[in-house]
Amino acid sequence: MSASRDEIVQRLPGARSIRDVEVLLGLIADVQDYAILMLDAEGRVATWNLGAQLLKGYRAEEIIGCHFSVFYPPNEIAAGKPKRELEVAAAVGRLEDEGWRVRQDGSQFWANVVITPVRDRDGTLLGYGKITRDLTERRLAEEQLRAAEEQFRRSFDDAAIGMMIVDLDGRYLQVNDAFCAILGHPRATLVGLSGESITHPDDLVADQQAVRRLLAGEGRSFTREKRFLHGAGHPVWTSINVTLLRDADGRPDHFIAQAQDITERWLYENQLRHMADHDPLTGLLNRRSFNRELDNHVTRVKRFGATGAVLIVDLDNFKYYNDIRGHGAGDSLIIQIGQAVQSRLRETDVVARLGGDEFAVLLAQEDSATAEIVAEALLTVIRDKAAAARDGDHRRLTASIGIACFADRERLTADEIMVNADLAMYDAKEDGRNKIVHYRTDEHERPRTESQMKWAKKITRALAEDHFELLAQPIQPLRGGPTQYEMLLRMRDGHGALISPGDFLYIAERLGLIQEIDRWVVAHAIDLLAEHRAAGRDLRFEVNLSGHSVGDPELLELIERRLLETGVPADRLIFEITETAAVANIARAAGFAVRLSELGCHFALDDFGAGFGSFYYLKHLPFDYLKIDGEYVRHCATNETDRILISAVVQIARAMGKHTVAEFVGDQETVEVLGRLGVDYGQGYFLGRPEPLANHLAAHPSSEYALPRP
Fold first, then answer.
1. What local confidence, expressed as pLDDT, does residue 87 receive?
2. Alpha-carbon distance 223 to 200, whole Å?
3. What CATH number did the domain enclosing 503 receive?
4. Fewest CB within a 10 Å sphere: which of 297, 331, 395, 607?
């Protein structure tokens, strides 16, 4: 005979006699899921079913007659719990309890126990029916759930980043302390508040669109940067991740979100973006940004027709003013003139400082006549500012302006229009200064071509007849160690005078001669190293390469061959390329640098910081030296921002195991500041001017460069 558990549970409390109990015992004999037994009035076990044996481990002959307290832990027996449970059951008619019980082998399990008194018709207590269920798995599951909930609660509340649980209407159900700190609101204010009410108005639409995509099933989460409104009223930039959680049926239930305060990072990156595009002295656009704007305008001209003009503005006699009054006064005047020029232009015009005392203006819509009117206004405002600053100096400060207009008959590139405006500006200077000259093809093209051909002959002759010369500028260690030298190229004219590379390298690049020049420089630098090694001097040279030579297979073959032929250790050569040259073709620059490293040569990223948007490239170039752009070195002794930026570069280089070189070091105070900031090397006229290498070696003890004795 068998019966369902429900039937047994229903009928047992209704037993009124021993006969009733016997009937019930017959029904429950085969029930295995429950331990069902009868106790006599004293609590001794009278019956034992299969379920009891499976659950508690005792066979019937082992347990019948024993007191049921053997199923309780010792501490509960000592506390009298078994006896008390029988008394309560007898008094109230039924007792249900949960707690730990003990098996025959001593192991414990979590049990649900129901004890029901059994009486005869006269109410005399005959004994007790007792049903026990094993709830250990449920208990463990509940404990795990509670532990998980507690862990989540602690993780949520104690998280270092903002945490929020948000309902489908966008209201905060829970927030943690970190989120309250980010927003400057107490928890009581935020709970129940709509997220839209504290979101910056400009970010609301993007937020709503992202949430709608989640609800439509387009992904489980999204991450974006947005602004919240702080309790004090200012915006707070955050990086926020929002995940949609669904119920068991797959319906959207609520969101869980994380927010991290990135205001400081955003402000810093914004500052870097501004620095990458603007001249640090005047705040105007820099050359790179102007070229970008000019490229965009050239594209519009090709599509919609020729309009607009470019003005090159160069100050007259500024070098004299700078030498007499000092660089501080010169910088102040440049700032004032930059502001004055910008104030005379429209918002649609583009003005930039190209460097030094040279400015450029892009007038997007004007024709030649209007461009001249603008140029006249600029001449006037520059004269006025310069006159106020001259303070008795006898030389007038004026400007020369060259104008180049876009014309339908000519398809000019950005470089060509700049060259045209530059040529016109130099004509204005030659015509007496304080003038405006328009570029005209018939007047300028032939002279420009003739000039280029003349330079091409000079460069070709210099290569063939060794009219080039290498000067050395020391790179002094600020933290101990031997001096290094940067090898700087010069050309000798027919009278023996040295010509600066600024006068011929641009032409060499335009005429495709720059790679031959770079090969000449590298070959002669290696030969010079070999010559001094033979004399017992161990030197290290830094050699500049143009962007056109980066990746040149002939140059790589030359380096390998000459190093092998001369026996010069490869690590005595440091090849420099500028940051802007590297950025122009990062893949080629990286491959070139990797090959140099494999040879054993070192690699330097020159003018680092000139763009300041290219920290990204550090991970792609196996450099050994970072040369900090002089723009951040010149005034670092007095400018806190420059010191912060230099310190940041030093920390990055040091963390990567690399060295730093500060360019344009101008005085002892700057040397001391750079030393405190941790810069490894300094370079500049204060530490040594470009001169023949022999001059520098004569001024230093030979022991500094002596090769170790064999």
1. 92
2. 17
3. 3.20.20.450
4. 395
Tell me how many domains the chain contains.
4
Query: CA 579, 625, 642 angle in degrees (round to 5)?
Result: 70
- Give residue 356's Cα distance to chain centre: 32
* Continuous segment of H or E residues that includes residue 660: strand 659-662
| 3-class secondary structure, 428 | helix
Cα-based distances in Å from 550 to 141, 353, 547, 554: 66, 28, 5, 11
Extract the tokens encoding 619. Answer: 């991970």
Residue 297 lies in a domain: yes
435 and 457 inside one domain: no
Alpha carbon separation from 481 to 344, 680, 681 (Å, rounded): 53, 9, 10
Q: Looking at 140, 173, 201, which one is the last position of a domain? A: 140
Query: Does residue 300 share a domain with residue 247?
Result: no
Lookup result for tokens 């450099």: 623
556 burial level (CB within 10 Å; 0-12, 13-18, 19+): middle
- Are 373 and 421 part of one and the same domain? yes
pTM for the model: 0.47
Which residues make beta-bridge pairs with 682?
Answer: 476, 662
Asked if residue 473 and residue 352 are part of one domain, the reply reads: no
Distances (CA, A) of 673 to 631, 678, 681, 684: 15, 9, 12, 15
Q: Alpha carbon of 52 to those of 103, 136, 269, 652: distances in Å?
A: 10, 15, 72, 72
**In a shared domain, residues 419 and 467:** no
CB atoms within 10 A of CB 617: 18
The separation between the first and the last C-alpha atoms of the chain, rounded to the nearest angstrom, is 106
* 242 strand-pairing partners: 222, 257
Do the beta carbons of residue 608 and residue 632 sit within 8 Å?
A: no
Successive 10-residue mean pLDDT values, the chain, 710 residues: 42 47 52 82 91 91 93 93 93 92 93 92 89 90 81 78 90 92 92 92 91 90 92 91 90 91 82 76 88 89 87 87 75 90 89 89 90 92 79 68 81 81 84 86 60 75 88 90 90 81 74 86 95 92 86 88 94 80 60 86 78 55 84 88 89 89 92 94 92 85 63
Q: How far apart are CA 464 and CA 190, in angstroms?
A: 79
Clarify whether residues 77 and 180 are in a common domain.
no
Pairing of strands 484-492, 541-544: parallel
Six token digits for residue 709: 């004795």
Identify the domain containing residue 191 by its residue range: 159-261
Answer yes or no: is 290 within a domain: yes
- Report the CATH number at residue 239: 3.30.450.20
With respect to residue 445, please indicate whether it lies within any of the assigned structural domains. no
Instruction: Specify the DSSP class assigned to residue 157.
Output: H
Collect contacts of 696-702 with beta carbons under 8 A, ≥24 apart.
696/472, 696/474, 696/483, 696/485, 697/537, 700/483, 702/536, 702/537
In a domain, 152, yes or no: no
The enclosing domain of 327 has a CATH number of 3.30.70.270
If asked whether residues 297 and 221 sit together in one domain, one would say no
Residue 603 sits in the same domain as residue 686: yes
Cα separation, 185 vs 177, in Å, equals 10
